[in-house]
Specification:
globular, alpha/beta, binds pyruvic acid, 2 domains, eight-stranded mixed beta sheet, binds 1,4-dihydronicotinamide adenine dinucleotide, AlaDH/PNT_NAD(H)-bd, seven-stranded mixed beta sheet, binds magnesium ion, Ala_DH
Length: about 375
């Protein structure tokens, strides 16, 4: 198969779909890899590194899209990239379609085969291609939140861990999954007072086993959420209903009643955000203020640490890229139900039920759409 790796074009996005070591694996399986010039330069990989791994370098994204049977990316395709997709071409990347009607409509119109990293599943009930970036974003959320709390950023002027004789900040993490557990780990390490809310009791049990009495793991009722959010200095939004738009758990009334200078980091912003006042921001201008509360809502947080993130992402995606390349999309999807769960759009049909529901499109089961 001919596999194409364009340079990412989202704001301050330096990750790349494949590192040279992944290219070498594909070449060893007998495939051809086309890489856009300078695609990896943001993390120190030169064109020569890709050539040494067996890739061919192309001058433009247009060339890569035109000549490749499968495009491997990191972030959702931007409008100019969507315009280059064609019928039957495989697109393997994050999509986050539920809050993004224009992208969804363009992918439907393209008739491409669009497989989303974030809805691929595994045997343990996890999301193996989302997990590594959730680890990164969860850990980063505490750094970002600590900065947002600084006075010069309009925060309350609090140090997360306090100092001897002065209370630490209260960090409230909503959603105790991959993002939430990693945020809690960092917040505990910095000496904050940490509460994690989740509505899955097994998740709360797991957190209890991991952290003991270093955190409070609380069942997430509307009551508990309101109490802890109003007491918080820093709120981390890390909930997910796979594929679906995030539920708006923190309302604009909550925000208005939070402490002046408190901060929120809405990591779930890529699925629309779990805070009513959230709107996506970029690394170039990551925060804004609503009712004296500092909002950080960057939708590609791992892009800030692209070296760590690209390797972590590639470690997870490579086996699936190889399956798709070796077998072709139809056989690879039919052979692996977990990869099939990643199929969001094919041949103009929406095959992810939660995306169809969020955007009012007809849902066509993947097994049916594959044979259309
Ligand atoms: N902004 C960014 O750069 C990044 C964003 N993310 C996003 O972060 C979000 C979280 O991802 P993961 O931690 O991997 O998901 P996960 O599935 O591991 O955890 C989500 C948790 O939310 C809980 N939850 C769902 N509804 C809830 C509710 N109403 N109240 C309390 N808890 C609830 C679930 O029980 C689950 O434990 C996703 O939207 C993901 O796409 C992930 C990586 C990077
Ligand atoms: C998951 C995601 O949105 C990211 O890594 O940018
Ligand atoms: Mg206020």
């Amino acid at each position: 198969m001919i596999i194409g790796v364009p340079k990412e074009i989202k704001n301050h996005e330096y990750r790349v779909g494949m590192v040279p070591a992944s290219v070498r694996e594909l070449i060893n399986h007998g495939h051809k890899v086309l890489v856009e010039t300078q695609a990896g330069i943001g993390i120190g990989f030169t064109d020569q590194d890709y050539i040494d791994a067996g890739a061919e370098i192309l001058a433009t994204a247009q060339d890569v899209f035109a000549q490749s049977e499968m495009i491997v990316k990191v972030k959702e395709p931007q409008a100019v990239e969507r315009a280059m997709l064609r019928e039957g071409q495989i697109l393997f990347t994050y999509l986050h379609l539920a809050p993004d009607l224009p992208q969804t409509q363009d992918l439907i119109d393209s008739k491409a085969v669009c497989i989303a990293y974030e809805t691929v599943t595994d045997n343990q009930g996890g999301l193996p291609l989302l997990a590594p970036m959730s680890e990164v974003a969860g850990r980063m959320s505490i750094q970002a939140g600590a900065q947002a709390l600084e006075k010069s950023n309009a925060g309350r002027g609090m140090l997360l861990g306090g100092v001897p004789g002065v209370e630490p900040a209260k960090v409230v993490v909503i959603g105790g999954g991959m993002v939430g557990a990693n945020a809690a780990q960092m917040a505990v390490g910095m000496g904050a007072d940490v509460v994690v809310l989740d509505r899955n009791i097994n998740v709360l049990r797991k957190l209890d086993a991991q952290f003991g009495n270093k955190i409070k793991a609380i069942y997430s009722t509307a009551d508990a959420l309101e109490k802890h959010v109003l007491e918080a200095d820093l709120v981390i939004g890390g909930v997910l209903i796979p594929g679906a738009a995030a539920p708006k758990l923190v309302t604009k009334e909550h925000i208005a009643n939070m402490k002046p200078g408190a901060a929120i980091v809405d990591v779930a912003i890529d699925q629309g955000g779990c805070i009513e006042t959230s709107k996506p921001t970029t690394h170039a201008d990551p925060t804004y203020i609503v009712d004296d509360v500092v909002h950080y809502c960057v939708a590609n947080m791992p892009g800030a640490v692209p070296r760590t993130s690209t390797f972590a992402l590639n470690n997870a995606t490579l086996p699936y890229i190889i399956q798709l390349a070796n077998k072709g999309y139809k056989q690879a999807l039919l052979d692996n139900q977990h990869l099939l769960n990643g199929l969001n759009v094919i041949n103009g049909h929406i095959t992810c039920e939660s995306v169809a529901e969020a955007l009012n499109f007809e849902y066509v089961p993947a097994s049916k759409a594959l044979n259309d």
